Amino acid sequence: MAVSEAVVRAVGLEKRYGLRTVLRDVSFELESGGALVVTGPNGAGKSTLLRLIGGLAAPSRGLLEIGIERRRVGFLGHEPLVYRELTALENLDLYGRLYGVPERRERIGMLLGRFGLWEARRQRISSYSRGMTQRLALCRALLHEPDLVVLDEPHASLDDDGLALLDAELGTLAAAGKTLVVATHDPARVAALATGSIALGHA
Amino acid sequence: MTAYLGDVAALARKDLRLELRARDTLPAMALFVVATLVVFHFALPGGASEDAAYGLLWVALVFTALLGLGRAWAPESEAGALDGLVLATSDRSAIWLGKALATLAFLLAAEIVALPAFALFFAPLDGPALLGVLLASVGICAVGSLVSAMAAAARGREVLLPLLFLPLAIPLVVGGVGSSISPEPGAYLAFLGLYDAVFAILSWAAFEYVVTE
Amino acid sequence: MSITRPSLSALAAFAVALAAASVLMTFFVAPEDADQGLSQKIFYVHVPIALTAYACFGLGAWKALRLLLTRGERYDLESYTGIHQGTIFGALTLVTGSIWAKASWGVWWTWSSNQLVLFLVLFLFYCAYFMLRFSIEPGPQRERISAVYALFGVALIPVSFFAIRLASDFIHPTVFTRDGPQMTGSMFAAFCTSWAAITLLAYVMYRTELAGKRTDVNLRDLREALAR
Amino acid sequence: MSAGEKYVAAAYGVFLVFVLVWAAIIATKLSRLERETGELARLARARTSADQGDG
What we know:
heterotetramer; A: 203 residues; alpha/beta; 6 helices; 32% helix; D: 55 residues; mainly alpha; 1 helix; 0% strand
């Protein structure tokens, strides 16, 4: 099997917000199709590391190479990154146009159906529960069939069938050879998929 | 190029849809500008010249624009939507252009209310004056959208926005007032066009650096 | 400090020498102005300060452009210090300008002197630069936003210059601005020495402040390294 | 002093005062830096002697 070169490579990564150093000396490699699990207590910088990988922030020091073009990355963060006063359809339609998703309507319909939001597709996000908002954020993150999927504590605020849907989705993504980065407090849940893991302590 | 304009159109449409739904910026701007004109009526001493009234129109327009600009990036900062746009959009200047066009639409809508009210309360507005208002409004929205994005990244943005915006608006006020009261408004209109060109290009090129972390 | 650039102390010494020369030439060589008399001597210090302020704003904008293009962190401090100097000299321009206005026209402030009005606008603009800078968390975004604002400033200078000239047509139809006194040879020589002296002094101050700010950054890194 | 001389003196005086004030600000900054570097130097010396102690 050809050695699959690293899709994401970090060497001595450091991130500083103001005078606070949030990430210090983080190094790892993630090959294509692999799944990196990021663990660590709250405030250890998990979300910051994922924002760096997702392309939402630049490292203060150190090297971060991402072999995938920014718009081929799917990002799920603590914030849903949607407009609360728009409906699910309107949000996904906007992002579909920006990402240039082919057959946008069909793809949106399929995703909303798969994540159980089809009935609520015309309701505004402000009327959604936290679990429904999290599912919509998942639809937005997967809308453009990204090659690299970055998920920051995706299991948070999901109910049981939401969790089942998510686990199934992670399975299909891994099977499809997508590269995953998952930050979680419950590594057991994604242990089956993980090809690598990194534990962040307080910098 | 069409993809870029597609992005701009989708982003501007999103703002118009949000405004029609929430209806919290446009009515406020229209009411604010008329109320300001009425206050100016009482503020103007009896014998004040007509020129002074034109000057006050521009003060009213600038502060009405400030009201709109203060809310320009509010929808984006709610559920982290700006990060979503920064990730999804191929050329981030489209985010600025979409916002500038939407803000211009709101400002023009407020002016549709303000200008007849001004003509009614104070003095007539001829062709060059209206063109001056249009050209200045373009400049206000181009620079204003960028500057309010800067303020959105800072603490105390409500206080900061006027401080950042007003010095940049001074040339627009000069051009606008000049086009209303000067016998040959041509020079002032040309100046407004120059301002719009210079600062629109600068804002268009600089926006990428303002929103990326 | 790279050795190719002259050392700070040499520059400082040269600046002092130039300053002394300019004072001598201003008061003992250059003849008094025909109609303004002695008060015209303020010109030799007011105009060079204004030109130095422009130079500092230009330097700040140039470093800002370098920061945006090359993402080199060192340019942020240089741009910030340059604009800090520019704002100080801008304030000085306003003060010496109003003294000159009082001396030649009997009023502390006049809207008809285009240069004074321009500096008032720029002073407002650049004070907002510091308000903006200090309300954002230190980091790459603050550096870039400050840099963009600095570039807007340098675009605002010519635009405001035209605006004020256009404005003076309808605000003050009766205009009595002085468009720069005609200068004989020795007056011009005195002006040039004074200009060189003040520009050099500003550069020395810029380099000194920059050294201070860089030391602050180094100290912070050291303190963090030792604290661990 | 005639009015003209007063204003010339005022202008140059303002510039001189400014330079002195600026020098004073730099002086205070210098003394602060000196104190901080002193503290750090002591910390470093304490650190190195501690390393040698249990080295």
